[in-house]
Amino acid sequence: MKKLFVLTICLLQTTVHFAQSSETLVVEQLSEFLEFRPQEKVFLHTNKQILSAGETLWFKVYLTNANTHKASKLSKVLSVELIDQNQQMLYSRILKLENGSGFAEIDLSDSLPDGDYFLKAYTNYMLNFDRSLLYTQPLKIINKWVAYPKTEAPSAGFDVQFFPESGDFVNGLITSVGFKAIDEKGLGVSISGEIVDDQANKITDFQSQFAGMGSFKLIPTTGRTYTARVAYKGSFFEFPLPKVLPSGAIIQVTPALEKMTIKVLTKDYPLDNHFLLGYQRGKAFMLLKPDPSNSYMYSAFSTTDLPSGMVNFTLFNPEGVALAERLSFVMSQDDPTLSIENPEKNTNRSKTSVSLSIDHQGKDALADLSVSVFRASLDQPMKNNIQTHLLLSSDLKGHIEMPQYYFQDVDMQKVEALNNLLLTQGWRRFKWPDVMDKDLPEINHFLEQHQSISGQLFKYYNRQHSAPGEVSLTVLENPLINATVETDADGKFQFAGLDFQDTVTIILQAQKPGKKAKKDPTKEKNDAFYIRVDKKAIPPVVTPLVPMRTAEIDNAIADAEAQMNKIREIEAAFSEGGAIMLDAFEFKSTKNPYNDPVSSRALMYNNPTTRVELDSMPVDPRLGAATMADVFNALQIPGFNTTTMQSRGASTISGSNTVAFFYDGMQVDQAFVMQDLSPGDVGSIDYFTGAKASIFGAVGASGVIAIYPRSDRSYANLDVVGIANFKLPGYYQPREFYSPNYDVTTEEKPDYRATLYWNPAIQTDQHGAATFSFFTSDEDAEYLIEVQGLTSDGNPVFEQSYMIVE
After folding, report:
1. I need a labelling partner for 307 at 20 to 30 A (CA). Which of 44, 255, 685, 778 fits?
2. What is the DSSP string of 240-289?
3. Which residue, 385, 450, 341, is CA-closest to 60?
4. What is the pLDDT of residues 367-411, one digit of tens each?
5. What is the number of other CB atoms lying within 10 angstroms of the CB of residue 463?
6. Cα 760–Cα 761–Cα 765 angle in degrees, nearest 5
């Protein structure tokens, strides 16, 4: 970076003195701010983004430092949630990360309604910063048999916004004006229009380019007001432009393929002792000052020595106050490139070998990669990938449509389109007044490298008053795991360094400080404390959730529905799981999860199709549930339609039949379950279908829902003086993706896997090489091999390759 800084100074042909107090202060405090408040970015690579209900969603997590893009060394615990368009959480995973990465999967219920869904990912530490930074990724889930309930959500409607370059119109200064037009879903739309002044004089015409964005030039005049007249879908709309300032300064940036021109223009505003700072990823690379004989700044410089990514230019006055700002983007030609070599044509059930190579301009090319192979028709065009996200989308506020467009076949048209984007959605991860005032964001959510439990003690009979004491922790499943901590003066406590692979029962007991245990524990009375355990924050998404553009995925939706029809036909023909339908998998553990019945009566109905132990779930579906219908809706049990309370029969394609209900081993009617049974009394739910329901005889022909009460041994939700107990979800243990090996097995059943191959843990050698192989299926189609990942020095890589199976 030092070499780059010197080069930039020479190109500017101006006198720069970093030793001057204001310039030095700005650079040093920026560095200090980012050092003491480092931020993180997260990206999820999924096996695909268009899925059918009943499939498995596989994903790989990449957590990076926000500036260097190297694997984050800060957080090691990350939450992933699947939410619907109303932000209701349907599934959640807690992952333990190693070197900034981890992976897991979600089995989507086959009764999940057709519609738009979103993945949300965050660390606890991220919650200290702007919530609009939270990562979300849209998904489309296809289910023609179950429609998503329609809601009458308010619509923002058509809108156009206009943004003068660097923030303001200044009298007499030619200014680029960016604009963005969006529809009621927040997606860009094509528009045209004209700018008129308050005397009805036409100033200029304008036309949107890519994704509803564009720009035009305007020389504003003080005393005049300007209005944009916009034509859209046969109607005309008017939008006022910002007011014109009589004096001030603006920044003009003109990007090109490998160079950039920057100007600072003024009107009745002296630039004495002002300076322009250029910085990228938190590091200064340019300091520009005006020539004493001129009232402007100017520089044209090469960008070949800068890495790809956002660059910021900020104009400061002599006191170090930021006056104007402009964002631009550098597209480096020296970024590492990823290549995929694979056979173009393949036969059914044949072994396909793939070679990967990374060219990193002679540098070490170690990389952490993930691979998915799926039908090419199910790919989302120009989607957000690890490269577009880390370099672009994560540094801009709002929804970025088809970000991959800006990175493919880069030419001046793409440069101009990217410039329009930055004119309309420019933003940064900090505020300059906070930097200069050393006003660091308050840390209310601490870094998590392990799981932790925190809370506060209160007087049991007066819970408005906190009280100090000692808190002991015991794990019910393993009493040898125990610890004791002393609270602070306000009764606050924390147990850190907890790592559990399975959900465990935690028992907390509070007592007065320094209290000695009696010789006879049976005569011991609990001290009058109430223990309030802090609940894990589930942050809402504060930015609009923008779904995929339907017009771009119409063919994908049709293909997904056709594949789903074929799978259901095979399901009917082969009855109990005869076809290799979706994503095959195998468990590494040999433990039978049904060997531990929830009650003695459960023994007679063991080995269900699906078992749900409510006390072991990370989010308790009974909380806030008024009836069992609310619980079923939250659980989305695969194969069970929560709307009709019916089950798809084992030998039918689309037929549905009402299930039989059992409670604690006794058959009951649906009315009892839906009207009389309290959700708080339920401990677990079993679902039986197909051959596994045959134990119930004719009653089980259409499936069975067996509900069991909480065990007498359950400690859940007891309100006892001085004691608190609850379930602590452990880290999610991912399954291993498995595809058939037709070299050693002969499978007569049809193979129509929705994902041919998924591998979240491919590591290249120092030369950037790696290989993998998989077997194709029975389906004749074009497939896409997609590879994403991160090099050891923080460079994101992305590539796709096509193959034919016939």
Report:
1. 44
2. EPPPEESSEEEEEEEE-SSEEEEEEEEES---TT-EEEEEETTEEEEEE-
3. 385
4. 999 999 999 999 988 999 999 999 999 998 888 999 999 999 999
5. 10
6. 140
159-164: strand order across its sheet:
159-164, 175-182, 213-218
Pairing of strands 50-52, 135-142: parallel
The pair of structure tokens assigned to 420 is: 């329009």
Q: Which of 245, 204, 211 is nearest to 228 (CA)?
A: 204
Burial 233-270 (b: 16+ CB within 10 A, else e): eeeeeebebeebbeebbbbbbebeeeebebebbbbebe
What number of other Cβ atoms are within 10 A of residue 520's Cβ? Answer: 7
Tokens of 224: 């005049």
Burial of 362 (0-12, 13-18, 19+ CB in 10 A): exposed
Tokens of 449: 């490298």
Q: How far, in Å, are 45, 158, 228, 239 from residue 236 at the CA level?
A: 42, 11, 10, 10
Nearest alpha-carbon partner for 689 in 642, 644, 639? 639
Please state, in angstroms and as integers, the Cα–Cα distance from residue 649 to each residue in 568, 654, 659, 661, following that order.
11, 8, 10, 16
Candidate from 301-310, 451-460, 619-628 with smallest mean pLDDT = 619-628
- Cα-to-chain-centroid distance, residue 720: 39
- pLDDT tens, 34-63? 888 899 999 999 999 999 988 899 999 999
Give the Cα separation of 551 and 479 in Å (integer). 58
Reported as a pLDDT band with limits 50, 70 and 90, residue 470 is very high
Across the chain, mean pLDDT equals: 84
Contact criterion met (CB below 8 Å) for 33 and 67: no
pLDDT tens digits, residue range 194-251? Answer: 999 999 999 999 999 999 999 999 999 999 999 999 999 989 999 999 999 999 999 9
Rounded to whole angstroms, how far apart are CA atoms 531 and 518? 22
List b or e across 540-559, with b for residues whose CB sees 16 or more CB atoms inside 10 angstroms.
ebeeebbbbbeeebeebbeb
Query: For the chain, how big is the Rg over CA atoms in Å?
Result: 30
Tokens of 563: 């594949």
Q: Determine which of 23-32, 536-545, 566-575 has the lowest per-residue pLDDT on average.
A: 566-575
The CA distance from 62 to 689, in Å, is: 38
Look at the block and give the residue holding tokens 């081993």. Answer: 665
Average pLDDT estimate for 446-468: 92
CA distance 478 to 7: 63
Is pLDDT above 60 for 712? no
pLDDT at 356 over 60: yes
Q: What is the rounded distance in angstroms from the CA atom of residue 149 to the CA atom of residue 336?
A: 46
Cβ atoms of 96 and 102 closer than 8 Å: yes
Strand 660-663 vs strand 704-709: parallel, antiparallel, or unpaired? parallel
DSSP E strands, 617-681:
640-641, 646-648, 656-658, 660-663, 666-668
Position of tokens 């600072």?
264
Q: In whole angstroms, what is the distance from residue 103 CA to residue 220 CA?
A: 54
Phi, psi of 68 (to 5 degrees): -85, -20
Residue type, position 241, single letter: L
Tokens representing residue 654 in the block: 């689309």
Identify the weakest region by mean pLDDT among 90-104, 591-605, 610-624, 759-773: 591-605
Amino acid making up residue 71: A
* DSSP per-residue codes, 133-191: GSEEEEEEEE-TTSBPPP--------EEEEEEGGG-EETT--EEEEEEEE-TTS-B---
Helix (H, G, I), strand (E, B) or coil at 785: strand
How far is residue 65's CA from residue 790's CA, in Å, rounded to a whole number?
Answer: 12
> Phi/psi at 216 (nearest 5 deg)?
-150, 165
Percentage of the chain exceeding pLDDT 90 = 51
Tokens of 167: 């923030």
